[in-house]
Amino acid sequence: MRLYECVIIARQDVSQTHVEELVNEFCAIIENDGGSIKKREYWGLRSLAYRIKKNRKGHYILLNIETEPTTLNEFERIMGLNEDILRFMTISIEEVEEGPSIMMQVKPERSERPRSDRGERRDTPHNSESHDATAETGA
Q1: CB proximity list for 63: less than 8 A, separation 6 or greater
Q2: Which residue has the higher pLDDT, 52 or 101?
Q3: Which of 70, 115, 63 is nearest to 91 (CA)?
Q4: Does 99 map to a domain?
Q5: How many domains does the chain have?
Q6: 77-105 pLDDT, tens digit each
Q7: Is residue 12 part of a domain?
Q8: For position 47, which CATH number holds?
């Protein structure tokens, strides 16, 4: 059996519970043929880079699966027939990553990110005061 990674994008107007039911049906295709689901992540409702079938957002799901290529073809055929699925992409992988994917890792908020001092002028009052203090002490 081979390992695959599949990302699925479902329509935005479908509820999250309905998306979970769809994914369960797709996973059943794999499991009924002797395959297994190694990892399953729901990435949430995210904006699309461009409109797909009049949708600006989509529910993203990641599946890492182990199955035979013939079962994978049937899995992809069934997804292609479902109107609630906007896009999917499956790639072959060497091994399943342990832990959460990069999309699930927490990114720091904008206020927590280190700021550069590009906007700050060098001749601000607090900088000139420190220069004056060093000049008076003779340092």
Answers
A1: 5, 6, 7, 8, 23, 26, 27, 37, 39, 40
A2: 52
A3: 63
A4: no
A5: 1
A6: 999 999 999 999 999 998 887 877 777 77
A7: yes
A8: 3.30.70.60
Q: Counting beta carbons within 10 angstroms of the beta carbon of residue 99, is it exposed (0 to 12), middle (13 to 18) or buried (19 or more)?
A: exposed
User: Minimal CA–CA distance to 42: which of 63, 14, 21?
Assistant: 63
Pair of tokens at residue 105: 């890792």
Nearest-5° Cα angle at 74, 50 to 42? 45
What angle, rounded to 10 degrees, do the helices at 69-81 and 16-32 form? 150
Q: What is the Cα–Cα distance from 97 to 62, expressed in whole angstroms? A: 12
The end-to-end CA distance of the chain, in Å, is 74
Domain that holds residue 37: 2-93
Task: Identify whether 105 is part of a domain.
Answer: no
Q: Where are the beta strands (DSSP E) in the chain?
A: 2-11, 36-52, 55-67, 85-93
Per-residue pLDDT reduced to its tens digit, 66-80:
999 999 999 999 999
- Residue 104 belongs to a domain: no
